[in-house]
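Feature request disguised as a bug report, sorry. It would help if multi-protein outputs had a clear separator. Right now it looks like this:
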Amino acid sequence: MTAIDLRKRPGKASMDEGRAAVMDAATVGSPALQRLRDTRADLSGMDLLEAAIKTDFPGRIAAVSSFGAESAVLLHLISQVDPTTPVIFLNTGKLFGETLRYRDRLQEKLGLTDIRAVGPHPVDLSAKDPNGGLWNANPDACCYIRKVLPLERALKGFDASITGRKRFQTNARSAMEAIEEEKVRGTGEPGSDQGTRFKINPLATWTQEDLEVYLDTHKLPRHPLVKDNYLSIGCMPCTERVPEGGSYRDGRWVGRDKDECGIHLPNNIDGDGI
């Protein structure tokens, strides 16, 4: 596998700064968030997960996983805390077959009992992507109907979600907090955009080296495409191998002014990173 350059992509500075500003604007600063940050300030990894799953949001929290290049780390941590924790898997209909088989392998190995595969609604596909080519014509719109809306529907009724995002992944995530609170995006239905939802990022401060050490220590299987230099793995049409010396996410949406699928950005932008 090629060495990973974690620097931001050339020419992406303005986009990253814009993404960061948008993400900041969407963040809510409630007293409840401040209390959580005060009491969990020293926690990360499994300790933060255990507090969130068992104490802060018992029965009201779900993990979101792409079953991508590094997903085994977060999923293994969750399995050690509570393997019955709901895990939402976005099956966009455009994933690599390797990803689907990897999901099955990890589910069996880790003993996760509540993986919920969700996908785009047939009505949305019929109206917006009847021929399946929206990913090429308008990738933001494609991400919206295949990722953003399905996830928002799946998270209805949950007060918090768990993500596997890390600060090193993009410049826009470099200042990400381990605990966030965001306005509920909504799905377009009346009243669906009310309230806020917490987001727990237990791996926020982990480095690529930390992830590799954890994978090796616990003998966790890698996504089969990693050995072919797919370093960040999303949908098949929008994911390519990273060339020698390329940066971590250079294989995503190549040639486009885009590096997020949208699920971690507010209402009017469609972006990535689970």
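(second protein starts here, but nothing in the output says so)
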Amino acid sequence: MLRFDAYSATMIGPKTDDLLQIIMDQVGIGGATFNQSKGFHTFGHRLGVKDHTGSEVGAIQWGGRQGERLMFEVKGEATPGAVEALRARFPHRVTRMDSCADFDAPGAFERLLGPCTEVKKAHRLKGSKAGDWDDFPEDGRTFYVGSPKSITMARLYEKGKQPEYRHLHRENWTRLEIQVRPAKDAKAAFSHLSPVDAWGASGWTRELAAKVLQEHVDAHPAGTVYRLSEQEAALRWMCKQYGAHLVGLAQDLGSWECVGLTIQEMISEQAKGR
């Protein structure tokens, strides 16, 4: 059964207490602890919530350069219930969504590794491995499909061999999950998608769902990574290198229009002198 395993979103409107209560309803008051720190992504403040094991299960961020915008984060077992509650109350834009499927049978990791490798090669995706694949198999293995910088990425790992789960004696427990970071135009649409729909974020995640999950998933494009053109990249480099000088020039000449005309004249003179 597919379910959400991590979910992050931004929104304007709720109070910080509203979002904190959603997390607390899933975690429970008993044993919960809080950690307040400086925020990420230009937020001024961040309040993390840890469960009785000391693992962070959620957080909210606010203030700073983000103005009225808030950020909501939840992960792990608390995610499905928290997402349901958030969606019922507050419109939002998804910044990250993880959808996972669990398998618990002898040889599960090896059986899933084959299709993951096939999809990686067929779509010419980057990938990597983590863990000890040779000498210490008891420590668990992880196989990544896609780049951490890309909009979609998949992880196949031996969940039951993680230190916090070894006491369950489920060494065959394997998890396959996709991580989606929707592009700007898709963030709102993803706030309505199910864990199954998330696998429609790209062509290769749809193919992986068909091979491994036997699920036909409709396309729900998460967008593509925006890449600067050569002209835009050159312009940004010029502004970074000479921005302060250009600002001073605009002040001396009286307007940015005069700066543009001055640069145009200099370029024309240089062209004539060639």
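Even a blank line would do. Unrelated, but nice: The beta strands are 3-12, 33-38, 45-50, 56-62, 69-75, 93-104, 127-131, 141-145, 152-157, 173-180.
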